[in-house]
Amino acid sequence: MTNPIDERLTDAQNELFEWIKDYIKNFNHSPSIRQMMSAMGLKSPAPIQSRLKHLQDKGYISWQEGKARTLQLISEIKDGSVPILGSVAAGGLIEAFSDLDEHLDIGDVLYKKGVFALTVNGDSMIDAFIADGDMVLMEPVNDSNYLRNGTIVSAMLPGSGTTLKYFFKSGNQVRLEAANQNYEPIIVNADEISIQGKLLAVWRKV
Which of 147, 159, 150, 149 is nearest to 195 (CA)? Predict the structure, then answer.
């Protein structure tokens, strides 16, 4: 049984929203544009994309335009939160984590795993599609000996700061490489560095 039509939604928007909710409940993932077109009896994707945009603007869904599989119900992600522990440099080095002062809503399962979020400052990881202002979700690293070379990590150099880079280790030496040819690698001894987390996801507000 569907909920009463919300005053903020048109009949068409509400029809699609209720169908999406039922689909995600039954299949545990979001539908494709083509599936939504079929369900709504439409032959063009344009009306579907328009309705999705309105649903997003009105706060019912999270969606990257043109990518239906990124669709999420806001009601499904608002109950969990990930602590935002500060900023991480994607350029030079900046101060380490600041005091916790806010949370990024993302979902219970990530929160239970100890995941934390950092705001990216700088463009040194731009070729890895991580831009200035993005939020990166990091999974805690308890033992860097088990990290694979090429993993993107948040690393702290005591007395210098925290940075987001590719991690490479050879013997007792660690090399932190940028995803931007304008930045030189940072090379240090393994005992001079602390790896706080490895990249789990990138959160970009659009």
Answer: 147
Alpha carbon distances (Å) from 184 to 69, 150, 192 = 37, 16, 18
Per-residue pLDDT of the chain (206 residues; tens, 9 = 90+): 344 444 578 899 999 999 998 988 887 777 888 899 999 999 988 999 899 888 877 778 776 565 555 677 766 544 455 555 566 666 655 554 544 445 555 554 454 456 777 888 889 999 999 998 888 888 888 888 889 999 999 988 876 778 899 999 999 999 999 999 999 999 999 988 889 889 988 877 66
Domains within the chain, CATH numbers bracketed:
11-77 (1.10.10.10), 81-203 (2.10.109.10)
Calpha distance 46→72 (Å, rounded): 19
Q: Quick one: which of 99, 138, 101 has its CA closest to 117?
A: 138
Tokens 């393994």 belong to: 190
Q: Letter for the amino acid at 54?
A: H
Assess whether 205 carries a catalytic annotation.
no
Q: Nearest-CA neighbor of 36 among 25, 28, 27, 45?
A: 45
Distance CA 85, CA 109 (A): 18
Q: Is 75 a catalytic residue?
A: no
- Tell me the C-alpha distance between 12 and 3, whole Å: 14
Catalytic residue among 30, 62, 154, 165: 165
The catalytically annotated residue of 62, 87, 124, 154 is 124
